[in-house]
Amino acid sequence: MKKVITYGTYDLLHQGHINLLRRAKELGDWLIVGVTTDNFDLERGKMNTCNNVMERIEAVKSTGYADQIIIEEYKGQKIDDIQKYGVDIFAIGSDWEGYFDYLKEYCEVVYLPRTEGISSTQLREERPSVKVGIIGTGSIASRFVPESKVVNSIDIVAAFNPDLKLGAEFCEANGIPLAAGTQDELFAACDAVYVASPHYTHFEYAKAALQAGKHVLCETPFVFNTAEAEELFRLADEKDLVLMLAHKTAYCPAFGHLVSLLKSGTIGEIVDVDASVTTLTDERSAKMDKELLGGSMSENACFPLLPIFKFLGTDYKDVTFFSKMKNGVDIFTKGVIRYDNAVASFQVGLGAKTEGNMVISGTKGYAYVPAPWWKTDYFEIRYEDQNLNKKYFYPFAGEGLRYEIKDFISSILQGSFQKLSRKEMLKMTDVQERYLKGENVFQL
Ligand code: C2G
Predict the structure, then answer these.
(1) Beta carbon of 20 within 6 Å of any ligand 1 atom
(2) Cβ of residue 72 lying under 6 Å from some atom of ligand 1
(3) Which of 60, 194, 269, 281 is 20 to 30 A from 11 (CA-CA)?
(4) Which mutation among 7, 14, 50 tests ligand 1's pocket best, with the greatest number of atoms within 8 A of CB?
């Protein structure tokens, strides 16, 4: 029996893919098709796939040409597969001419004619774009715009700042067509809104955007009390809109894989999560202004709360805070969260600095994520027996906002799964609310 193998992403499966699979099948008796995983695609610079790996596998299956489907996860896997499955012919489209000649050592290599005039890239570009308006034109918005350029199906069409001069300057600097004079003018121009304004304004802007029928991507921290969070969820549900938190760590590849790895028991039962985020900030900054809900908890707590909730869940028993205060705001807070069978602690600071790493301890070993863990591309799993230690590397491109932007756009266009659940968003808000109410807060 002659075995043929071919590989691809097969995003938005089209006639070019179908022709290729048919020709590959005709070369032998048994066709194995390797479909790339989402992570492998990210690693090889394919940021823009619209279908996830399960959808792409289903699409390949539906052509009826594949006798066997495998997933391609890493560079160099082709050699392993050819040997493992006893492959006679490796076939691939002629756009790869010459590139896979190194496989000739292992089997016959055939470059099949590529179908002209059709490609996944072209199909992706033809899809309708989501028109996004930005509220708030500060530093995070300035980073958001260039990051959005590497994501498909998004056009930033307008920005609004109540200080119209600043709004106009931002649009000018970032090539955004409309500097909206009012919120309503912004809403009229877009399908979705990115709320990147000072945090005490998040609720009002997000609410107005949802009421106007716009999807919302809200910067961190979300809002400051659970009643507000619930009201926003209710509004989003009523109007069938996406409401997502722009928590970049939740969407970045390394963090996602750390979650799946630890959830599968790699370090045993998790007993402790400890994470810190400190970002020294000028005392005169709005982030340190008591009247504007400034302080370390407001600014940074949602970061350590993410791994704590992902690894230990949201069913905590109590939270205790120890805060070093200055001018009425916490320049540093240590929090301890008690669970039935585990504990978590975090440090956040705007006026004090500490190592920004994360350690997750389990009954069999621990995960160590070096600083800055919230934008990591690397972590280690460590054991008593150091020979078993393992290092994991992932892409973290640019500012890392592209991952959340991609998920926001896919959620709108395809209703894909949201990596940060409503429960987690709600509980992040709950911890902030307890802090603001002074529940179990010890000032130092
Ligand atoms: N193809 C084709 N005609 C087109 C478009 C694609 O024949 N108009 C072929 C490609 O040459 C490839 C297959 O269809 O053989 C899958 O294409 P993609 O989904 O774009 O995957 P690709 O990035 O080429 O991945 O490890 C992955 C592989 O190396 C190929």
Answers:
(1) yes
(2) yes
(3) 194
(4) 7
Residues of the chain with CATH 3.30.360.10: 253-395
Q: How confident is the model at residue 46 (pLDDT cuts 50, 70, 90)?
A: confident
Which class is 3-122 in CATH? alpha beta
pLDDT, tens digit, for every residue of 82-101? 999 999 999 999 999 999 99
pLDDT of residue 346: 98
CA 416 to centroid of ligand 1, rounded, Å: 24
Ligand 1 centroid from CA 17, angstroms: 7
Task: Choose among 245, 268, 270, 266: nearest CA to 257.
Answer: 266
| CATH number of this structure's domain 253-395 | 3.30.360.10
Which residue's C-alpha comes closest to atom 14 of ligand 1? 17
Enumerate the CATH 3.40.50.620 domain ranges in the chain, comma separated: 3-122
- Strand pairing category for 243-246 and 215-219: parallel
Q: What is the DSSP string of 313-372?
A: -S--SEEEEEEEEETTEEEEEEEEEE-SS-EEEEEEESSS-----EEEEESSEEEEE-SS
How much is the pLDDT for 96? Answer: 96
CA angle, residues 176, 182, 184, in degrees to nearest 5: 95
Residue 374 has pLDDT above 80, yes or no: yes
Q: What percent of the chain has pLDDT over 90?
A: 85
CA of 18 to the centre of ligand 1 (A): 10
95 Cβ inside 6 Å of ligand 1: yes
Q: Which fold has domain 126-247?
A: Rossmann fold (3.40.50)
Tell how far the Cα of 13 is from the centroid of ligand 1, in angstroms. 10
Is the pLDDT at 45 greater than 80? The verdict is no
